[in-house]
Amino acid sequence: MAEENQKSEENNNISTYEHFTRLLLANQRSLYGFILSLVPNLTDADDIFQDTVLVMCRKFEGLRLKSSFLAWGLSIAHHKIIKFREKQNRSLILFTDDAFKIIMDRSDSILSNMDQRVKALENCLTKLIEPDRELIKMRYEEGLAIKDIASEVGRPVQGMYKVFARLHNALRLCIRKTMSMWGTA
Questions:
Q1: Which member of 24, 46, 95, 143 lies 3.0 to 4.6 Å from 99 by CB, making a disulfide possible if both were Cys?
Q2: Are 97 and 42 contained in the same domain?
Q3: Are residues 128 and 81 located together in one domain of the fold?
């Protein structure tokens, strides 16, 4: 009986861990993007993201999500960013408190439909031809610099910048059109 309880407890832990991991992986770009939009230094943004994820991980098991996982994570990140700003009070501050509040207010409205934007982006990526999808994958999933991509595909660097400008524009227009069709623009 004790062995059955231990197995059941292990299965619950695994499923909780897997559930948290799946939700985090599905939302990590949006969460990190939010942090990076308010903390432009990559090292600081990475630290805040890691602290945010640790808090989320610790509090996830007993949590009953009343809102979306992303909204919950954004609220934790928001508090981490405020604490970070308080620590940085004596060093260089990029925004006044009033400016920071305006940015936070506007980011809330933008992030309110972030899930839909991500779904629209995923939809638009499927509409790209395979070579263009591969370029996007190399740049954003593998993190390669444009000059490295140019070298790998045997094209001039300036030409690759033009290709990425074209791809970004096409994706931006597609996302707008998709969001409009879905009534979430």
A1: 95
A2: yes
A3: no
List alpha helices for 39-156, DSSP H.
Answer: 42-60, 69-87, 97-111, 114-127, 130-136, 146-153
Question: By the 8 A CB rule, do 176 and 185 touch?
Answer: yes
132 touches 167 (CB < 8 A) = yes
Q: What single letter denotes the amino acid at residue 52? A: T
- Three-class DSSP labels, 18-73: HHHHHHHHHHHHHHHHHHHHHCCCHHHHHHHHHHHHHHHHHHHCCCCCCCCHHHHH
Q: Is the pTM of this model over 0.85?
A: no
How far is 49 from 32, CA to CA, in rounded Å? 6
pLDDT one-digit tens code per residue, 160-173: 999 999 999 999 99
Mean pLDDT of the chain: 81
Number of domains in the chain: 2
Domain end, chosen from 112, 143, 160, is at 112
Q: Among 63, 88, 112, give the residue marking a domain's end.
A: 112
Structure tokens belonging to residue 88? 């940085």
CB 141 within 8 A of CB 106: no
pLDDT at 6: 45
